[in-house]
Write a structure and sequence with these properties.
10-stranded antiparallel beta sheet, about 30% helix, globular, alpha+beta, about 25% strand
Length: about 290
């Protein structure tokens, strides 16, 4: 699954600032105790990891945090251990060509092997001004096994949206790592080339959808959406965007009336009728296509 926001940035410096806010707020909120350990790493500490794939990743009960960056055309990739403030300074120093940041945090078990973790991602789309795609990927099973972490993930998403110019946001299935939203999945378009197309349309709809006010107004505004009775939460954020939550939990959403939801969103979607791909829905590797267009 994915929790994602697409937000505007004006300059490379602003992209870096927003990226650092996303990574720092996400890491400190999703698992606060891990974040504290991450930032206590000594500069002279021996790095985690081993050339032996069967060896422990680090000391027992340790926290392993790594930052992977892609620069320029995306072909230059580097990975380094996260070391708190020195890493943040490194990311900010002469990084005008920074294209993507992938931040991964892992919890080690009593033997030093990976046992749990989460990740945060930021991708730059377009030149200045452009769009930043901030996301968190997670397993669907987490919605049942660890609802507290899911709640903290939603807090991160909502707080970030409060302070940004939002183009689109959602919490949904990750249909394809190369197609983050239903829009790209349905049209088979690379996000790099699609993000400026149809700016007046939503890029899908799901359990949670975040839309700018001007797009929501096309379907009657917040009042009409509340009155339809299909949403557990319709809240205006500080920046004027709206947080639309179709059910209190993901499990409840999977039993929602998708046909009625589609009719609400239809005026702001690309033309077509939604389909549910039963073949993909029967596989553990592919989610059902709850949001797709014929």
């Amino acid at each position: 699954m994915v929790a994602e926001l697409t937000v505007r940035f004006a300059t490379s410096e602003e992209f870096l600032q927003k990226m650092l806010v996303w990574v720092d707020s996400g890491a400190s909120t999703v698992e606060p105790s891990w974040y504290k350990k991450m930032n206590e790493v000594a500069d002279d500490e021996v790095p985690f990891g081993s050339d032996d794939p069967e060896a422990p990743a680090g000391p027992p009960e340790g926290i392993l945090a790594q930052v992977t960056t892609a620069s320029g055309s995306g072909n230059f990739i580097s990975t380094a251990r996260y070391r708190g403030e020195p890493t943040r300074r490194w990311l900010q120093a002469d990084r005008a060509d920074l294209k993507r940041v992938f931040f991964e945090v892992s919890k080690l078990d009593s033997l030093g092997f990976l046992s749990d973790g989460f990740s945060l991602n930021c991708s730059r789309v377009g030149d200045e001004p452009g769009w930043l795609r901030a996301s968190m990927n997670f397993r669907e099973s987490e919605t049942i096994a660890n609802p507290e972490r899911i709640s903290r993930r939603l807090t991160v998403l909502k707080r970030f949206a409060e302070s940004q110019e939002v183009g689109f946001g959602h919490v949904s299935y990750l249909y394809n790592p190369l197609s983050p939203t239903a829009y790209e999945e349905a049209l088979n378009i690379d996000p790099e080339h699609s993000i400026t197309q149809h700016p007046g349309l939503a890029r899908g709809y799901s359990w949670i959808t975040v839309l700018p006010r001007e797009i929501l107004e096309v379907i009657g505004g917040a009042g009409a959406v509340r009155e339809c009775g299909l949403f557990s939460e319709v809240n205006e954020l500080a920046n004027g965007a709206y947080w639309l939550q179709a059910a209190a939990t993901w499990s409840d959403y999977l039993h929602a009336d998708f046909s009625s939801l589609q009719r609400v969103f239809a005026p702001i979607l690309i033309p077509g009728d939604p389909i549910r791909d039963d073949l993909s829905g029967t596989s553990a590797h592919f989610p059902p296509q709850l949001v797709a267009f014929s």
